[in-house]
């Protein structure tokens, strides 16, 4: 069900150093970084895991809530998730589409739930 989780941090450099250190004994490390140029909003992000980033930290102050990404079986399910979430009262936070700055087949859609959390549906498979 869960694909990855992300949390906002108040001091990106400090938090990146902290998680790099504390995840090392568990066999996890820094897998990917997203630069301010890539996000387009001036924020930075770092993803930790083994091979694939499963735990993310972000300097973004756009939303001070948790980010949870749910794995979708295919791109049609991502589109249906987005449509259903908006009909149920969510706010759009990124329509269904490719996010190639993560990887070439990353297809996701983002909504803000009624409590302000950033919820995503994501498919990693090619169309």
TrEMBL record:
Lyase recorded as keyword: yes
SUPFAM superfamilies (alphabetical): Glyoxalase/Bleomycin resistance protein/Dihydroxybiphenyl dioxygenase
Residue stretches making up the VOC domain: 1-124
Source superkingdom: Bacteria
InterPro entries according to UniProt: Glyas_Bleomycin-R_OHBP_Dase (IPR029068), Glyas_Fos-R_dOase_dom (IPR004360), VOC_core (IPR037523)
Listed GO MF terms: dioxygenase activity; lyase activity
Protein name: Catechol 2,3-dioxygenase-like lactoylglutathione lyase family enzyme
Organism of provenance: Luteimonas cucumeris
């Amino acid at each position: 069900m869960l694909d990855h989780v992300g949390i906002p941090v108040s001091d990106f450099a400090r938090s990146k150093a902290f998680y790099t250190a504390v995840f090392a004994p568990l066999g996890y490390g820094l897998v990917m970084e997203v630069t301010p140029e890539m996000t387009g909003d001036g924020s930075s992000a770092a993803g930790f895991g083994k091979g694939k980033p499963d735990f993310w930290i972000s300097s973004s102050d756009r939303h001070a809530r948790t980010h949870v990404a749910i794995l979708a079986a295919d791109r049609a399910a991502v589109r249906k998730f987005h449509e259903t979430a908006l009909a149920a009262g969510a706010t759009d936070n990124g329509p269904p589409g490719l996010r190639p700055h993560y990887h070439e087949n990353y297809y996701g859609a983002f909504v803000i739930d009624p409590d302000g959390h950033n919820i995503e549906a994501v498919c990693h498979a090619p169309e």
